[in-house]
Structures are given as structure tokens and as C-alpha cells.
Design goal:
Layout (H helix, E strand, L loop, with lengths): L1 E11 L10 E13 L9 H8 L8 E3 L4 E3 L9 E3 L4 H24 L5 H7 L9 H16 L5 H8 L2 E6 L5 E5 L7 E7 L5 H14 L1 H20 L3 H22 L6 H12 L2 E5 L7 E6 L5 H9 L2 E3 L10 E3 L14
Antiparallel strand pairs: 1-2, 1-12, 2-3, 2-6, 4-5, 6-7, 8-10, 8-11, 9-10
């Protein structure tokens, strides 16, 4: 009984989502696999937090290699690096779902043939292995506890899948709703050869808020305006303009905070993206990891080559992948909701 949970891409609303602005996040067709029948080879901080809270009885084996990339040639240490696709959230969600699925399978095996669950299974309608809402809340609480906060949009993408509009509410509640991106939209993902630590970036931005609250407030306000416009965008051109507004604000925010939210490579490549009617933006906290090219048409061969020369390699993936689910070997997995061009 293999369970898989998708990674995510933050399309819009980075940083500003923590101030109440809407964020757009998409599940991608790169997954963490979890097998409840195999012992855990590694227990992540987030999974341990779920165990400590009583939401999970034990860790399980997982494979998160699809959310990683080979380390740059000549680098020392690990053979791979994270891509910034929300692997910690996907590992946690896959683990919680795998244990829930295993428990449900045990109950079904032990149940009498006359029970409603057994009759439903016989009719081809097995009872759900987990309650999505409860799974989301357990994962959100454990992820925030392990990471010292956060919006939780990566957890939402792994649980629910698709493309989502997320907004923080009172008390840290995360409101989540499906979102339709404009039609005729092309999204390409580029991975940097340098990984970034989200916690480090957020810490520097928080330090700016402490020493210069007016600048912090103004720049996040500008980013929030762009995030709100992105949700309302009815076509690719409007979405590109909304993303560019956010990148401009986040670039200055990073400059003032001493955090490379918009890296030098992205700054050099942005004019080329603009010339093609597109926006080139960091996904999430920035500083490296993955970036997104968003426009009405895919990037040209010349842009892809320029990106490669700048240390950014195209990483194929599709947006709108299904949320966490049991992988049935007897039939193919459900198709993503939104095709990637």
C-alpha cells in the first residue's frame, strides 16, 4: 500500500501571505512515496513533531528523491540537493496518510462481511482511508511546530492537490480554495545550482521588520497588492504584470534585509523574460532553489540557453497534480488538473 503526496510550487504571494495576502500554490507531479510496511530509514523533524503530538504512531519509509536534484559537479557532501518543492511537507503528509491507510486496511480486514464498510468495498466504493480535513490540520500543526511557524501553503498543496488560493485567517487558520489559473498560460520551472534555506531568509526579513518597520510594511504592502492582483488576473498578461509587481517589491525587500530573495541570476534574466512577455520570479522564499517563468507562451530556446548559462536548468513538471492518494498499481494515477506547457 504505497501512498504518494505531491510537492508544490508557490506561484504568487510569497512573504505577503504571512501578512494576510492571498497566495497561489500548485501541486506538482513530483511526489514523495511512503510505504507503511517498511521501517523508517530517517525521521524528519516534522514527522517527529506529529509523533510527539500524538497525531502519528510511528514513522515509515519514504522516498523523496523526486523532489531533489543531483548536486552540482564538484560539490562536496550530499549527492543531491533539495529543489524547494516542499519536500518536508510532502514527507509529513505522505507519512500521515500511509499510516492512516494501513490502519484502515487492517480495520477492513478484521471487519465482518456484513458491515457497511465491507458492503461498500464490495460495491466498489471503499471507505476513505483518511479524512482529508483532519489530515490537513494534523500536518499543518506538526509542520508549523517543527519549523517555528509558516503559512502552511505547502501542506495544503500536498493534501488537497490542484491549484489553490490560500489565505491566513484569525489565529493562524489557513483558508484554502481551488483556483483556476488563466487559460493559455505557460509555466516553466528552472532550478538553481544553489539551494536556499527558507528559515534563514525569513529570519532576515523579520530582522528588517524589527529595525525598519516602515520599510518592511511598505514593501510587503506592495507585494500584497501584486498578490491580490494575481488572484484576480483573468488572462496571462494580467498575471504577468501582477507577478512582476511582486518581484520588484521582493527584490527591494531582499536588498534591505540582506537576503537574496531575487538572486543575481534572476535579475540578469528578467529583462529577457520581459522581452518575451513573461515574468521570471522566485518560487516561495527565493534565494535559489526553483524559479518560475510565467507567460502566454513557453520560453524561447534562446532564453533557455541564457538561463542555463546563468546556472538555471529547466526542470519538467506539471501543475495541478492530485493531492495525497494511495497509489493503485492496477490502474494509472489520476491525471493532473492543469496541463503544463
Amino acid at each position: 500500500m504505497i501512498v504518494r503526496a505531491p510537492g508544490k510550487l508557490v506561484l504568487s504571494g510569497a512573504y505577503a501571505v504571512l501578512e494576510g495576502a492571498p497566495a497561489l500554490v500548485a501541486a506538482v507531479d513530483r511526489y514523495v512515496l511512503a510505504d507503511p510496511a517498511r521501517p523508517a530509514a530517517l525521521v524528519t523533524d516534522e514527522v517527529q513533531a506529529a509523533i510527539d503530538a500524538g497525531a502519528l504512531d510511528r514513522a515509515v519509509w519514504f522516498d523523496a528523491s523526486a523532489l531533489r536534484a543531483p548536486a552540482p559537479a564538484g560539490s562536496s557532501g550530499a549527492a543531491s540537493r533539495k529543489l524547494g518543492l516542499g519536500s518536508s511537507a510532502a514527507i509529513l503528509v505522505a507519512t500521515l496518510a500511509a499510516r492512516a491507510a494501513a490502519a484502515a486496511a487492517t480495520r477492513a480486514t478484521e471487519a465482518a462481511a456484513t458491515t457497511r464498510a465491507t458492503r461498500a468495498a464490495a460495491a466498489g466504493q471503499p471507505a476513505p482511508a483518511w479524512d482529508a480535513r483532519a489530515l490537513f490540520l494534523d500536518a499543518l500543526a506538526a509542520h508549523r511546530r517543527a519549523q517555528g511557524g509558516g503559512s502552511g501553503v505547502d501542506v495544503a498543496a500536498s493534501v488537497h492537490g490542484g491549484v489553490l488560493c490560500c489565505r491566513l485567517g484569525p489565529g493562524g487558520a489557513l483558508d484554502v480554495a481551488p483556483h483556476a489559473l488563466p487559460g493559455e498560460l505557460a509555466v516553466e520551472v528552472f532550478a538553481s545550482d544553489a539551494a536556499a534555506r527558507t528559515s534563514d531568509m525569513l529570519e532576515r526579513v523579520r530582522a528588517l521588520a524589527a529595525r525598519d518597520p516602515a520599510a518592511h510594511r511598505a514593501l510587503l504592502g506592495a507585494a500584497a497588492e501584486g498578490a491580490t492582483a494575481a488572484v484576480a488576473a483573468a488572462d496571462a498578461r494580467a498575471l504577468v504584470a501582477a507577478l512582476d509587481r511582486q518581484v520588484d517589491a521582493l527584490a527591494e525587500l531582499g536588498d534591505r534585509a540582506g537576503a537574496p530573495i531575487v538572486t543575481p541570476a534572476l535579475r540578469r534574466l528578467r529583462p529577457a523574460a520581459t522581452a518575451e512577455g513573461a515574468s521570471l520570479a522566485p518560487s516561495g522564499a527565493g534565494g535559489g532553489d526553483v524559479s518560475i517563468f510565467v507567460g502566454a507562451a513557453p520560453p524561447s530556446a534562446a532564453f533557455i540557453e541564457a538561463a542555463r548559462a546563468a546556472g538555471l536548468d529547466r526542470v519538467p513538471m506539471s501543475l495541478g497534480a492530485p493531492g495525497v492518494h494511495v497509489l493503485d498499481a492496477a490502474r494509472p494515477p489520476p491525471a493532473p488538473h492543469v496541463s503544463h506547457v
